[in-house]
Amino acid sequence: MGFKLEKEKRKKLEDLKLAESRRVVLTEGTLIELLDGMEEVLGESALIALLYSAGLRRGRRVVEYLKEEEKEWDLEKWLDESLRLPRQEGIFSNYKIDLEKGKIYISNSIECRLERMSGKSYGRCCFTQGYISGILNSLIEGVKVKEVVHKKREGEDFLCIYEIK
Fold first, then answer.
1. CA angle 65-25-48, nearest 5°?
2. What is the C-alpha separation between 86 and 14, in angstroms, rounded?
């Protein structure tokens, strides 16, 4: 009595498993403890570099995956598709792309939510900035991304604005 499981081909971004890993759910409190421990061992500068680098690699991997699937998108479509996954993963709650102004607007990034809970900035959205940089650097050589606004909006929402140069 046997059966064979066939590996399904993943076509949808929602089903993407980067590095063949499963999703792990952590509470924000647990994530704060992990970041505090890393900061204690590594120091603040190293933690910031680590978060940015991890975001950069993740953003690049998303674009690598998408390039295997689609080829005829304009820049705005590439950005939209590439930013959909981190939104679904809870890295941020929403985004808006404004290429005319050269800006990407991110609402409630994970770093902002952790800042609200703990009172610590954890590098002011370095993971999210790295993620966006990884996406853009995979699409446009030499592009720079800089966080130009990090502020609390009405209510408890945070808005970060990234400038594309």
1. 70
2. 10
What is the separation of C-alpha 40 from the centre of its chain, rounded to a whole number of angstroms?
24
Handedness of CA 31, 37, 43, 44 (dihedral sign): positive
CB-count exposure of residue 143 (10 Å: 0-12, 13-18, 19+): middle
Q: For residue 91, give the DSSP letter.
A: S
Give Cβ neighbours of residue 103 (< 8 Å, ≥ 6 apart): 148, 161, 162, 163, 164
Domains of the chain: which residue ranges? 27-164
What would the pLDDT profile of 68-100 be if each residue is shown by its tens digit? 876 678 888 888 888 888 888 788 888 899 989
CATH homologous superfamily for the domain 27-164? Trafficking protein particle complex subunit 3 (3.30.1380.20)
Cβ atoms within 10 Å, residue 111: 27
